[in-house]
Design brief:
Elements (H helix, E strand, L loop, with lengths): L1 H26 L12 H15 L11 E4 L2 E13 L2 E8 L7 E5 L11 H7 L4 E7 L14 H15 L4 E5 L3 H13 L8 E5 L11 H7 L3 H7 L2 E2 L10 E3 L1 H11 L1 H17 L2 H14 L5 E2 H13 L2 H4 L3 E2 L2 E2 L9 E7 L12 H5 L8 E6 L11 H17 L2
Parallel strand pairs: 4-5, 4-6, 6-7, 7-13, 13-14
Antiparallel strand pairs: 1-2, 2-3, 3-5, 8-9, 9-10, 11-12
Length: about 400
């Protein structure tokens, strides 16, 4: 019923968005006398804000057509190099450029598409052969493809690293820090030739007992059964994944919006003022952010629930009790994978110390292969996007990769 109600609302808002968009255009049309009145720009701007906020969204494009390598512009094309039911390995091929450290960027499976890391990819492209995990929207995966849980996530990472080959580096943004660390530990214990040379974890929930945030509180204040009965929905018949149990992306988005509701209301008020004043550049910047932020996808119920249980409620990885298909994940097995932990001083999703815990539990990793960086004045999103990422954080990641390539 929950998903059906959402789909009905979405359909109604799609129509309302179209009408509002038409109305905004008419209110700005030179042929309309009302457009020259004092109220015209105000009404047009209000309709524009509503139309943008209520329009339906699908999977965005990366849109990275070029990059600059050693001062020259080169073309970039996306290539799917490995396809699996719940995700694919995408490579950004720099045409005419050979070499450079191979970097696997692991996008979070937390309700947004991999395009949320567009800025991360763009910044690392000039000096690296970049791959990214492009996770699928669970509602589009037919039920005959089977399940996908945290164990499968780790298996996918191992398969992706095997496809890239020995000597690759791995960069985990937020949520995947736990499965990336688990994959590195398992591959290290097996002396797997394709284990990553470096693993960079940015704003990840390795040990959520450290400086718990509001997000952590949501996961711990309620019992596991509450999540099973209240946030899991069934995909309706109009999607390929009909009948699959999922944690809907629209619920995740609602949670994030509610957590910082004041900031989002302020952003939309500023958007309205920019439109009234005719400041199209500032208005477009806000719209671009929300185009990505509101583009959400579903997660399989088993992956979501297992993450709630293992990562946020029982803290199995830092306790040395996390299992992968009946096998204990041993942090002490990591002995030659160089670990870099990066945290944002103002991160309201992964508190200070949660990512750094990865260095502490790696008891047999030499100190020279551990590095910690606290990004002052940086929030969660700013760790991997924006000017602070480009100018202050990315150079640290690049230097760490270069030192161990």
């Amino acid at each position: 019923m929950l998903y059906d109600a959402y789909e009905m609302q979405r359909s109604l808002l799609a129509g309302a968005s179209t009408l509002a968009n038409i109305g905004a255009g008419w209110m700005q049309n030179p042929a309309n006398p009302f457009a020259y009145s004092q109220a015209g720009p105000i009404v047009a701007s209000a309709l524009d804000v509503f139309a943008h906020a209520s329009q339906p969204r699908g999977k965005p494009e990366f849109g990275l057509a070029t990059t600059r390598v050693e001062g020259r512009e080169v073309r970039v094309r996306e290539e799917i190099v490995l396809r699996k039911p719940f995700g694919q390995l995408k490579r950004f091929v720099r045409e005419g450029v050979e070499g450079g450290p191979r970097l696997l960027i692991v996008a979070p499976m937390s309700g947004h598409y991999a395009t949320l890391l567009r800025g991360t990819v763009e910044r690392m492209l000039p000096g690296h052969d970049v791959y990214i995990t492009d996770w699928r929207d669970a509602k589009l995966v037919p039920t005959d493809a089977g399940r996908f849980d945290l164990d499968d996530y780790v298996d996918y990472l191992v398969a992706f690293l095997e496809h890239i080959g020995p000597g690759a580096h791995m960069l985990a943004v937020c949520q995947p820090s736990v499965p990336c660390y688990a994959a590195a530990a398992l591959m290290s214990e097996d002396r797997h030739p394709c284990r990553p040379r470096t693993l960079t974890m940015m704003g990840g929930p390795i040990d959520t007992r450290e400086a718990p945030t509001a997000v952590n509180g949501v996961a711990t204040q309620r019992p596991y059964a509450w999540f099973q009965h209240n946030v899991i929905a069934t995909v309706p018949y109009l999607y390929p994944g009909a009948g699959r149990a999922v944690y809907p992306g629209f619920l995740q988005l609602a949670g994030f919006m509610t957590m910082n509701l004041g900031d989002h209301l302020t952003s939309h008020w500023e958007l309205f003022k920019h439109l009234v004043e005719g400041d199209g550049e500032s208005a477009e910047a806000t719209k671009r952010f929300y185009e990505e932020y509101r583009s959400v996808c579903d997660m399989t119920a088993e992956f979501y629930l297992q993450t709630i249980d293992a990562v946020f409620q029982r803290h199995l990885l830092p306790k040395g009790e996390m299992m992968h298909r009946g096998r204990r994940i041993d942090p002490a097995a990591i002995r030659d994978v160089a670990l870099l932990a990066i945290e944002g001083e103002r991160d309201d999703i992964s508190g200070i110390g949660q990512t750094k815990a990865a260095l502490d539990i790696s008891s047999r990793l030499p100190a020279r292969l551990k590095k910690y960086r606290l990004a002052e004045g940086v929030g969660h999103y700013g760790i991997f996007n924006g000017s602070k990422w480009r100018e202050r954080i990315a150079p640290v990641v690049e230097a760490w990769i270069a030192a161990h390539d």
